[in-house]
Amino acid sequence: MKYTKERICALAQIARIAVTDEEAERLCSELDGMQRFADVLQNAPQEADREDPFLDAVDMDALRPDGTETSLPGEEALAAAPMSRDGYFLVPRVLEE
Questions:
Q1: Residue 42: what pLDDT?
Q2: How far is CA 47 from the centre of its chain?
Q3: Domain range holding 13?
Q4: What is the pTM of this model?
Q5: Total structural domains in the chain?
Q6: Which residues contact 24 (CB under 8 A, 6 or more apart)?
């Protein structure tokens, strides 16, 4: 699409923006440049065969397989805690009331 001075003036009138003839000429060339750049981006090659391009960022072999493991019993975990009460860990207060 080619931008013309007349089209820029018509759009400016619809938008209720005052545009001088010099500004309209400058806008024509700037918008044409933007349109050419958008066309270049539109025609750029894409890697359409990849499901997720971000998967290469993670080495999938470095991750362990998912699985379930037995967890530490609560009583044993609390036995190693410096302070506990009624089955809960006690920690120092860090926020004032």
A1: 86
A2: 19
A3: 5-42
A4: 0.44
A5: 1
A6: 5, 8, 9, 12
